[in-house]
Write a structure and sequence with these properties.
37% of the residues lie in helices and 28% in strands. The chain is an alpha+beta fold and 99 residues long. The chain has a five-stranded mixed β-sheet. Helix 1 packs antiparallel against helix 2. It starts with a strand and ends in an 11-residue tail after the last strand.
């Protein structure tokens, strides 16, 4: 079994920060943001050894892993998995731009 390295795009890093910051601002505490961050990263770590667990999208080589209210879009490459974006499914789907 090949283990691939996870690489975060700058967009995915910003998406994650925005999601975590939203809950920090709303709740006034980091507790939920920390818990959500750990859970999302745990799901993403699964991709290292099981990259095919996500659902294939209409875009070639792009898959998405659903975690609660979030979709993690990623691309499988030979030695890496690139996290493209993290999308909150409660948003307007017309705003979602993968590439």
């Amino acid at each position: 079994m090949v283990t691939r390295k996870i690489i975060w795009s700058s967009r995915a890093k910003i998406d994650l920060f925005d999601i975590l910051d939203f809950y920090f601002q709303r709740n006034g505490t980091k507790t939920y943001s920390i818990k959500l961050n750990l859970n999302l990263r745990k799901s993403i770590r699964l991709l290292e050894s099981h990259p095919e667990i996500g659902v294939q999208t209409d875009i070639e080589n792009i898959r998405n892993l659903i975690h609660g209210d979030y979709e993690i879009f990623y691309e499988i490459k030979i030695k890496t998995i690139v996290i493209i974006t993290i999308w909150d499914c409660r948003q307007n789907p017309k705003k979602l731009k993968i590439k």
